[in-house]
From TrEMBL:
HAMAP family tied to this protein: SmpB
Short name of one Pfam family: SmpB
GO biological process per UniProt: trans-translation; trans-translation-dependent protein tagging
A Gene Ontology cellular-component term: cytosol
Annotated function: Required for rescue of stalled ribosomes mediated by trans-translation. Binds to transfer-messenger RNA (tmRNA), required for stable association of tmRNA with ribosomes. tmRNA and SmpB together mimic tRNA shape, replacing the anticodon stem-loop with SmpB. tmRNA is encoded by the ssrA gene; the 2 termini fold to resemble tRNA(Ala) and it encodes a 'tag peptide', a short internal open reading frame. During trans-translation Ala-aminoacylated tmRNA acts like a tRNA, entering the A-site of stalled ribosomes, displacing the stalled mRNA.
Chief localization: cytoplasm
Superkingdom classification of source: Bacteria
GO molecular function: RNA binding
Annotated compartments: Cytoplasm
Name of encoding gene: smpB
InterPro entries: SmpB, SsrA-bd_prot, SsrA-bd_prot_CS
Protein's UniProt name: SsrA-binding protein
Keywords noted in UniProt: Cytoplasm, RNA-binding
UniProt similarity note: Belongs to the SmpB family.
Amino acid sequence: MEAGLALYGWEVKSLRHRKTNIVGSYVFIRKNEAFISGMVISPLNQACSHITKNPNRIRKLLLKRIELDSLFGSINKKSMTLIALSVYWVRSWIKIKIGVAKGKKRHDKRLDFKEKDWAREKARIMKSKLR
């Protein structure tokens, strides 16, 4: 789903310079409004200095009531969450793509841990062979 973002002027300037990071961000719904948390927009050095800039602030998403209701219905399912997939421009508007994701269970994470350990062990073996 596509949503608009309510931003300050310095945030728009930073987004034009691609100073944003959405890794680890998530969307939550509070009082029939959607917000994004964990999205970092780094301020530019040239931006105005009389405003206190908070790069980690919670930003409001601009969605219609029907879209909010469908998102709320989809996250009420067991272990579902809303995440930000991408940030992009549509003409002069900044949009964010939102997706519904299912969280990993503990047994799903064990395979990832094994792969990380094997990659680390492989690197150690290769390093010792090169000496």
